[in-house]
Amino acid sequence: MGLGEHVGERILEGALPSSLRAEQRGEVAVLTLARPEKRNALNDDTILGIEAFFLSLPAAVKAAVVAAEGDNFSAGLDLSDIAERSTVDGVAHSMMWHRAFERIEFGRVPVVSVLKGAVVGGGLELACATHIRVAERGAYYALPEGQRGIFVGGGASVRVPRLIGVARMADMMLTGRVHDAESGYALGLSQYLVGPGEGLAKALDLAARIAANAPITNFAVIHALPRIAEADPRQGFMMESLMAAIAQGSDDAKDRLRAFLDKRAKKVTEF
Ligand code: 1HE
């Protein structure tokens, strides 16, 4: 088996729909979208399964990866689900997506996603709820909601403008513009760009690095950083000082700082 293939121990079997598969590799849990015949379109069971996965991560897990089977990350909302939905059901449906994706963005562990092929509509919304996006060349991004007569409902209007700005998101929705992997990388839709088929190995490597951080640092980056970044600067500086002091006071920080001073810790190097 190659590095990128799944060799972990299956977890949460029975708790997830057939469109999802979960496994654990040491301190990293991998959730795989497993409905490639429908381009990993996201139906209600899948969204609820994603929520269940992030709510039930084993205690030993310190980072997670969201990957996909087949050639595409996800074609977004399962369009066969939406046709008969009433307006009030539509609100509840969108709020269900928000709740599930909050479990990712503000969950217990940092999450890395592996993007390839279609990263479209709700698929892009899912990707944007993860903290690190690794895109393979060949990935492409679109928000075809405009063409389908609907609007984004899985958090894109909040998360996508933070990455690329309102004007670029408006362009994608109004004109159907598609960004390729290179353009998406340049805009900030992904933080990494790798060759075809290399995404999972890269994501697992990044997740292992993340898992090796002090838990208090990972907590601060997921929960404090986004709040500080959006706060009034005066509140933000105060929150930063408090968070810094909490992290610095931990035994973990003391051990790690001592290790550096004793020349037992790694120096900063490129990777
Ligand atoms: C689907 C879906 C889907 C594929 N829901 N079934 N998303 C979209 O508007 C994107 C719609 N999908 C596509 O444009 C294309 O499928 C792709 C460009 C992603 C891939 O094309 P291709 O040629 O590889 O596959 P295909 O032949 O189009 O699709 C294969 C099968 O997947 C086919 O089913 P089959 O039974 O005929 O084999 C398709 O019907 C099915 N399929 N995409 C349902 N999305 C919270 S709000 C979020 C709002 C949105 O996400 S809107 C954007 C929806």
N- and C-termini, Cα separation: 24 Å
DSSP, total strands = 10
> Helix- and strand-based class?
alpha/beta
* SSE string: EEEHEHEEHEEHHHEHEHHHH
Sheet with most strands:
7 strands, mixed
Identify the strand order in the major beta sheet. Answer: 1-2-3-4-5-7-10
Name the poorly predicted regions.
none
Report the mean per-residue pLDDT as an integer: 95
Morphology: globular
Beta fraction: 15-25%
Number of helices: 11
Radius of gyration: 19 Å
Proportion in helices: 40-55%
Bound molecules: 3-methylmercaptopropionate-CoA (MMPA-CoA)
Keywords for this entry:
271 residues; alpha/beta; seven-stranded mixed β-sheet; three-stranded mixed β-sheet; 11 helices; 15% strand; globular; binds 3-methylmercaptopropionate-CoA (MMPA-CoA)
Task: Give an overview of the whole structure.
- The chain is of the alpha/beta class.
- Helix content is 46%, strand content 15%.
- The chain has eleven helices and ten strands.
- It has helices spanning 44-55, 87-105, 122-129, 145-148, 156-164, 166-175, 181-187, 199-211, 215-230, 233-248, 251-261; strands at residues 9-10, 20-25, 28-33, 63-68, 111-115, 118-120, 132-136, 140-142, 179-180, 192-194.
- The chain has a seven-stranded mixed beta sheet, with helices on both faces. The chain has a three-stranded mixed beta sheet with strand order 6-8-9.
- β3 (28-33), α1 and β4 (63-68) form a beta-alpha-beta unit.
- The longest helix has 19 residues, at 87-105.
- The protein is globular and about 65 Å long.
- The protein starts with 8 loop residues before the first strand and ends in a 10-residue tail after the last helix.
- The relative contact order is 0.12.
- The model has no long low-confidence stretch (mean pLDDT 95).
- The chain binds 3-methylmercaptopropionate-CoA (MMPA-CoA) (1HE).
- 3-methylmercaptopropionate-CoA (MMPA-CoA) binds at residues 38-39, 41, 72, 75-80, 94, 97, 118, 120-122, 144-145, 148, 152-154.
- Residues 38-39, 41, 72, 75-80, 94, 97, 118, 120-122, 144-145, 148, 152-154 line the site of 3-methylmercaptopropionate-CoA (MMPA-CoA).
